[in-house]
Design a protein that fits this description.
Elements (H helix, E strand, L loop, with lengths): L2 H30 L6 H45 L1 H20 L2
Helix pairs in contact: 1-2, 2-3
Length: 106
Amino acid sequence: MSQTNTVALATKEKLVSDMKVVIADAEEILKSTADVAGEKMANIRSKIEARLKDAKVRLEDAEAALVDKTKACARATDDFVHDQPWKAVGVAAVVGLALGVLIGRR
């Protein structure tokens, strides 16, 4: 998996996480304003509820796509390791050496 894909995947994971927090906060606000009366407040509350439902559906879709992409990357990595084990060992050794050098400098 390339570094660009890894960064994009991490960004998507962060976005999904942030959206879950926003949705939870909005639901909490709706619950805390449930006793506030008035037609205007009821209209606002119903609009927010509709948008939250839509956001939840989109978030579930995004999360499913993210899981699918993660699984595809894992399968590709597994296939690479099985098809070219010595290259995989070499890459792992180089990454380990680089990390060792970086940690050793501290």
